[in-house]
Amino acid sequence: MKMEKVSLLIKNAQVFNTYLKKFVPADVSVLQGKFYYIDREKSQDFQAEEVLDARGMYMIPGFIDIHMHIESSMMTPGPFGNFLAGCGVTTIVSEPHEIANVKGMRGILEMIAAAEDTPIDIYYGIPSSVPSTSRELETTGGVIDFQAMKHLLEEKDVVCVGEIMNYRQIIKENELEITRFLDYLRTEKPGYVIEGHCPSLTGLDLAKFLYLGINGDHTEHTLEEVRQRIENGMFFELQEKMLREEIIAYIRENNLFEYVSFVTDDTMADTLYETGHLNAVAENAVKKGFPLEQAIYCATYTPSRRMHLYDRGAIAPGLVADFQLLRDPAHFQPEYVFKNGALIFSGRKGSVSRTTHRFPEDFYNSVILPPLSEKNFEIPAPAGATSVMVRAMEVSGDRTQTREKLMPMAVKNGKLDWQGSGCLLAMAIERHGKNGNIGYGFVTGNCMKHGTVATTYCHDHHNLLVAGDSPEDMLLAVCRLQELQGGFLTVDKGKILAELALPVAGLLSEKSLKETAQSLKAVRQSMENLGYAHYNPIMSFATLGLPVSPALKLTDKGLIDVKRGKIVSLILS
């Protein structure tokens, strides 16, 4: 009798059965990139092109991260995907609204093209909020309108609508481009996956959000907010900061594992390098009381179903052969990782190396600033005033949201005497070469106590944001960023302390993860040395310009009252 041929045979593995949610001993065969037979009896003989004896290792599906942003790593897709292979992550869904805010549709298409060089599958979500608010509140380099969204719907690697961030506007009567697109989807593609972003939304407002078909959320919430989401049919995506005791207990007690998955959302290069990716989130969940088998389930199967990726997420005949082999099932650091039945990572050899995508030349020349001098760092006071009250963004160490704080400030020679006032001056400088706007604000609280921080990585408009205690240092920082064509850096007393160059659209580095991580960590440590007391000072600073995250934020148009969605004056009358 002629022996059947297969591509790959994994012998003597402890195989995770997704449907039973338990490990079973079996041999697993792969044919043409898909699982062929899971042989629990170990009775079938195959002629295999390649045989690997797992020697009792644990075989689980490749991890699937359905809500994340490659740009948050500050790396291009090539080195990013190469690293994720070593974390056991074989599929991701990235939402490229960061680069879309700089380069519009071309930015998205270039990210899709760059993903073709990676050893893992990278799918994309349609950026639904570019700009995140409106052209009246912020200037972006690109805009994704209704027609652009329709075009992206036809791209083969696009699988969902990315997070809808203008969540307070969309539940009111509006003329938003995303509202037009949701109406279109309701008719043309009912059931299409639509991701949400709705921090603090509850009650009737949450119901209005869900009514629009937006039925997923990943943002930070209280237990009551999580309860309302799940009880109303919303799929909930757990990122690291949501792995709280009361949240995990609620999921366990109510057996809600079908309705949740793990995601990373925003993971920066130094954190990636030191702790890992989705594997680190899932492992931490287990340490905090999430049942092991359910953690594997929520890192593989539930995310695949959420994104309608029905060809993966389990080890079963006919599904794509994406899997990893672990020595310890509770320690998600794989010895081997396979994608479509081919080895993409070995603990002894590392990840498969791929070529680097080259972006168009204008992507390397995206920081176009108006002429600046130290005069630009002066703010006129109302005529005749000797002191004023100003609005300041107060940074809290445990969140990226700010509070509005009213601060007294002296007036000197007709200008605000902000140096030594307890506030740092902040400026959002339009850098897309459109209008040269400069928005002014003040920062206080858990920010730097001295020195300057500046970046072109400023959510989501990605204009240049600089904040500091010295006009001279602030100008030096701005000039250096223009020279680098993007980056993140710190300055104090006329000296650049640390810097990370981000020359691709002012957002991304093409260097290896290790190099990018080391530079970013130096900036992070420098910020902490300057007094920035926050669990993630990089993200805290970068979101000072995010006008959809409460409560007071700064764009090139000025200070934004996020809840009201309006520009407010810096100086109170």
Structural notes for this entry:
- Helices cover 26% and strands 29% of the residues.
- The chain starts with a strand and ends with a strand.
- Strands 18, 19, 20, 21, 22, 23, 24, 25, 26 and 30 form a 10-stranded mixed sheet that branches. Strands 1, 2, 3, 4, 5, 14, 15, 16 and 17 form a 9-stranded mixed sheet that branches. It has a 5-stranded parallel sheet with strand order 6-7-8-9-10.
- Strand 23 and strand 24 (464-468) form a beta hairpin.
- The relative contact order is 0.13.
- The mean pLDDT is 95.
- The protein has 573 residues and is an alpha/beta fold.
Detail the topology: elements first, then pairings.
Layout: E1 4-17, E2 22-31, E3 34-39, E4 46-53, E5 58-61, E6 63-68, H1 77-85, E7 89-94, H2 97-115, E8 121-126, H3 146-153, E9 158-164, H4 167-170, H5 177-188, E10 194-196, H6 203-211, E11 216-217, H7 223-231, E12 235-238, H8 245-253, E13 260-262, H9 269-275, H10 278-287, H11 292-306, E14 323-326, E15 336-339, E16 342-346, E17 350-351, E18 387-395, E19 402-412, E20 415-416, E21 424-429, E22 438-445, E23 452-455, E24 464-468, H12 471-484, E25 487-492, E26 495-501, H13 513-529, H14 537-542, E27 552-555, E28 558-561, E29 566-568, E30 571-572
Parallel strand pairs: 1-4, 1-5, 6-7, 7-8, 8-9, 9-10, 11-12, 12-13, 18-22
Antiparallel strand pairs: 1-2, 2-3, 5-14, 14-15, 15-16, 16-17, 18-19, 18-30, 19-20, 21-22, 21-24, 23-24, 23-25, 25-26, 27-28, 28-29
